[in-house]
Amino acid sequence: PAPAATAAPVSAPASTAPVSAPAAAAVAAPAAATGDYVVQVGAVSDQTRAQQYQQRLSQQFSVPGRVTQNGAVWRIQLGPFGSKSAASTIQQRLQSEAQLQSFITHAN
């Protein structure tokens, strides 16, 4: 009876895990800031504007983001994401929910 009682609580969370796993994975990966792909939303010449824009998008889409300098411009990127499909999901949401064009590129 003891192993059966132990198995029930273990299997109950496991059955709910697939529902929460994508959210957990999305939260876990950004915390470590690991991944090979980012979604670039734009590039502007003003660092403050770039950071404000990135923060707003990160909050709106519940994903991490960053601003990186490339010469005279600051790139606004969301991610990094561990897979191209995860980046693609955000890219599609940017298009459908915010009418924003973006592209997927390698994080570096």
Briefly say what this structure is.
By secondary structure, this protein is α+β, with helices and mostly antiparallel strands. It is built from three helices and four strands.
Structure write-up:
The chain starts with a helix and ends with a strand. The radius of gyration is 18 Å and the shape is globular. It has helices at 2-32, 47-61, 84-98, and strands spanning 37-44, 65-70, 73-81, 103-106. The chain is of the alpha+beta class and 108 residues long. Mean pLDDT is 79; it is low at 2-32. It has three helices and four strands; from the N terminus they run αβαββαβ. 21% of the residues are buried. Helices cover 56% and strands 25% of the residues. Strand 2 and strand 3 form a beta hairpin. Strands 2-3-1-4 form a four-stranded antiparallel beta sheet.
